[in-house]
Amino acid sequence: MSEWQQARFNTFDGLSLLYHFRKPQRDTNDTLLLLHRGHEHSARMIPVADKISEGDYWCFSFDLRGHGESEGEPAWAPDFTTWVKDLNSFAGHIRQEFGIQISDMLVIANSVSSTMVLSWVLNYGANIKACVLAAPAFSIKLYIPLALPALTLLSRFTSNKFVTSYVRPNLLTRDKKAAEAYANDKLITKKIGVNVLVTLFEASKRCFKRLADFETPVLLFTATDDHIVHNKYHDQFIQGISSVTKKHIVLKGFRHAIFFETEQHKFIQPTQEFIAEQFSHRVKQLPMVIPTARAHTQTEYAELLDKGSTSKQLYYTSYRTLFNRFGKLSEGIQLGLEKGFDSGVMLDYVYQNQASGKNSFGRFIDRVFLNSVGWKGIQTRKKHLKSTLEKLTQQQIAANIQPVILDVASGVGRYLFELQQKADAEIQLHLNDIDETSIAVAKKLSKTLAMPKVSFSQHNVFNLVSDNTLSIQPNIIVISGLFELYENNKQVHQALAYLFSMLEEGGYLIYTGQPWHPQIEMIGRLLNNRQGKRWIMRRRIQAEMDQLVSSVGFQKLDTASDDLGIFTVSCAYKTSSQNFS
Questions:
Q1: Which domain, by its residues, includes 551?
Q2: 294 in a domain, yes or no?
Q3: Region label for 80, one of left (φ > 0), alpha (ψ between -120 and 50) or beta (otherwise)
Q4: Could you give the maximum distance between any two Cα atoms of the chain, in Å?
Q5: For residues 196 and 199, what is the distance between their CA atoms, to the nearest angstrom?
Q6: Same domain for 444 and 488?
Q7: Which terminus, N or C, of the chain has the lesser number of Cβ atoms within 10 Å?
Q8: How many distinct structural domains can be found in the chain?
Q9: What pTM value is reported for the model?
Q10: How high is the pLDDT of residue 468?
Q11: 62: exposed, middle or buried (C-beta count within 10 Å: 0-12, 13-18, 19+)?
Q12: Residue 315: what pLDDT?
């Protein structure tokens, strides 16, 4: 069996995190990614990995920021989603450094890290092979009455307060040696940031609202004598997810630290069997096969198309009357009512994020409107689009390649002009949009900013195949905020296939997704689109969107998500040899 090694990687914000890894004794990319629970560190996962893998798999484990030997303030992070982003960065590092794809990774997690896995899969579309979740901390027991409301209030005023765990080691495990080792481990921290704890509860609650989106094979372990988490949520999780393969094992007498309990065979043996079974399956994406639309999102879409119950119609009719009457005082709402809340000029207004109205009350309404959860997500989406484009164009310029960007649903395209202004070399831009107003505003803005090498067209992206009107050959194509407006996967697939054929070999596709939206019903029943009809969207979970992209030949590289998991920005590339595995 090979020796364990240490290394470091820089996570998404530049922080240096430590990790341990071990090579397998056979030629394989099958990988186990082991995540330690809160308070602990990755070195504690080494004996766990040795028992489970027996040298047959790659093994990786990293110290969460603020834990073990990773950088960061001890036991602290800006919020829980930061840990999820670190996990996503670590998986990207493994792919880049070791050539191991996320689809070859099986994740083993305990407690808080199990919730990280759930959030990662839902928000980032992490296409992992499977996961083993031990005593997931979907809801932590807080024994002090009203503790969570008090901590939530505290977190609104400060981000540097901590909660100390007074759980004794013998309440984590019945194994006396393991309890003693835990007590004497100087790298273990008993604290956790208040803001991390509060946002953990919030993230878990959001994830449980979309359990049907979770399709990953899972083996879940519950400890009957767990003093840390509420076990009832484990049953809700198993019952709510869409995974075809899902197993739930209840370990009688076990306590929370399942990895370090007595009677380890009750955990190790089923875990080994599950891992072997999952790695024996080699699912392949067949070329040009259109992925199936997820039934629960189709049902959701059909319900939005329906007028709804009498009481619901009355509610939204009253809401719409008030919205139209007072909303006209807000410049943003007035713009949406006239041009459509899905129009390019509307999104450009949201991107600028400057409240405006006919009077002070109108400006107040506009600020509330712009601060809505959906528009905040849109603003984050713009940041992710720009950062992704900056990275790709910098790579191309460094390789003496001129970036040629086609945005097929560009709207006003302000972020593209901002990209050009910041770039060290010229970038050729082509903006296409079906909306005449958006293109007109884009042309005017281009002249105002004196943009070089910019061209425009006004075509329906779904007619590009038959029209064949775009003569440029881009090396970057952007599709933003478009496909959720169209329910039919066949239609989306055909457009993607044509864009694939247009793109240069080695070029990149940047595409956005909307896996989830907490206001999707309100939007569909209250707001109008640019055709003056109800703005109804059919959301696609990230796995479905990724499958549409890969089915035409693209290979996904990465995904960025806002903290609520509403909007994603993903990057894929076109290889010279199409590989649909």
A1: 373-573
A2: no
A3: alpha
A4: 74
A5: 5
A6: yes
A7: C
A8: 3
A9: 0.93
A10: 59
A11: buried
A12: 95
